[in-house]
Batch of 2 targets.
Target 1
Amino acid sequence: MSRTILLVDASNAFLTALSTTLRAEGYEVTTAGDGSTAVSAARSNMPDLIILDLYYPPDVGHGGGVPWDGFLIMEWIKRMADFPRTRVIFTTRENPAPFVERARKAGASGLFQKGKDMSPLLSVIHRLLGEPTAAA
């Protein structure tokens, strides 16, 4: 049974690059470019792992300037019944150091800075999805 990943990022280039890499490795990948799409996607097919960017532009396409961020999206998804089985990894273009403690307290399994070398992120994905779900 393949493992499913929900990849949430406002950057189409990042979504395309990482989803292509993950699909080539055998993962089933769903992508979302904003918070409301991410919450809907998580609700419709509860993924094994969610990779969330920390920042998004205002969601003006859905009738308002809701300032979504990765922590808010995670908070909404946590309200769903099966969320405890789903791991979350945050990504950011910024220096991740100021967010480490907040991410840990939010229950994230990791926090990575986006860059050319995504191998540290990929190795954590392999480690998280290689574990039995019950051991989570």
Target 2
Amino acid sequence: MRRFVAFFVFALLSAPVRATVLVPIEFRELVAVSPIILHGHVVDVRSDWIDGRRAIETIVTVEPAEYFKGDLGDRVTFKVPGGELGRYRTIFVGAPVFAQGDEVVLFLDGTGAAQPHVVGLSQGVFRVVPDRRSGLSLVIPPAVMGRTDVDAEPVVRGDIARKPVPLDTFRQAIRQVIAEGGR
């Protein structure tokens, strides 16, 4: 009888388990599946409740400096799962975090009437930072990025293969993939 009562109590108190699975996307595929690719600056970041105050999402507004593919106008607003509102915080593993003033290259999907969203969560956000020595703008690749030459790859902190590249080189790589049709 005790086992039955214990099982019944655990069954009533159990909660559904949810997980985020982030499948690495290769750079060529990222360029090919993204109808909008832009380089710009984050001008506004704000959070709002969703799902009846059960979760928080972040609304990000970017002023594009240039479009590599597509065009959404002078300001682009999109939503990212997770965020902070007062003393409440929703964490969505794999979702990018933005701050006002960030310089980024974004890979967005927003075809039709749907509001744009970042392709591949954090994989569709490349940070742009100035190099202190040369003054060049460097593009930092995301932590998880697929490669065509391996099936599975561990994420290694400080991986030297994840080197920053100059923005001009990154721009040329995007244009080359577009010209080749994503192959």
